[in-house]
Amino acid sequence: MKTITFGRSQISSEGPCYVIAEIGHNHQGNLDIALEMIEVAARCGVQAVKFQKRDNKSLFTKEFYNKPYDNENSYGSTYGEHREFLEFGLEEYKILKKAAEENGVEFMATAFDFKSVDFLEDLGITSYKVASGDLTNIPLLTYIAKLKKPMFISTGAATLEEIRMAYEAVLKYNDQICLLHCVAGYPTEYEHLNLKFIETLKKEFPEAIIGYSGHDNGILAAVIAYMLGATVVEKHFTLNRAWKGTDHKFSLEPEGLRKQVRDLRRVDLALGDGKKIIYDFEWEARKKMGKGIYSSKKLPAGKVLTWDDVVFKTPANGTPPYLIEKILGKTLKVDLEEESPISLDLLE
């Protein structure tokens, strides 16, 4: 069994499922909204909340940074202005991290560049998430790996060979690795989820913990992923799917997140231990729904019983139908009224 321990958290390859609420930039650049999202996600039962950190000017080319970005989801006239509007600085991050701690959840973040890694190190982050887009960014992966903190690596839009390359690059310095099955569709339709790839990841990387980072709508896929072996689930979270922004449409609102956590916990309860037992509460149902052997009519003492003398009826009476061969051909010791239970101690 593989385990990863960090901060207040422990994750196991055997479960239970570790649920991360991906807040990302669904806070709309508003600190109060971000704080409310942490509180609500914690009440929904998640183990961690996650944000995204970018140093935009070092991350994007000047052309891309200054590219016009005029659409319904934009918070600025250029893409750079849009991204800067959504970013928090160190003081805000300190407040967010403290809020997570006060609400009993782990504070996590995705680092998109070297400066953001340094930023999060100054903050005192206990783990790192790496986005799918950086799966082949071996220099960044190596930079983070050398910090010896758990790494959660998404695998969207990548080949198995590229996943292996990333894994081996990190493994040189750090064996605390969680590979997250992911499909880079926003949202991802169900026919593209390819959840059975989770089994492939478990087979190909037996020393890693396997998880699922979902962009699907709804809560079904994460439950299936958990049953296939993904013991970490990351789902995008919002307070309102109708809000401005590109990620809200495939995010879970509070009630959806609560039900997601509930259903993941129900998996552990429902699977049981594989042993077949009769629960105490089943005995009454067994009696009510089962059948017993009764007399089909009045029968005198001394009667040798035949098929014409017996019937199978509900409720069960202590003499189940499978004992019929022990009754046929035997002699009654007492008189029986119609529909009297026939037990073996009445026979000779």
TrEMBL record:
A molecular function (GO) held by this record is: N-acylneuraminate-9-phosphate synthase activity
Q: Which SUPFAM superfamilies match?
A: AFP III-like domain, Aldolase
A GO biological process of this protein is: carbohydrate biosynthetic process
Superkingdom in the source lineage: Bacteria
Protein known as: N-acetylneuraminate synthase
- Source species taxonomy: Bacteria, Pseudomonadati, Thermodesulfobacteriota, Thermodesulfobacteria, Thermodesulfobacteriales
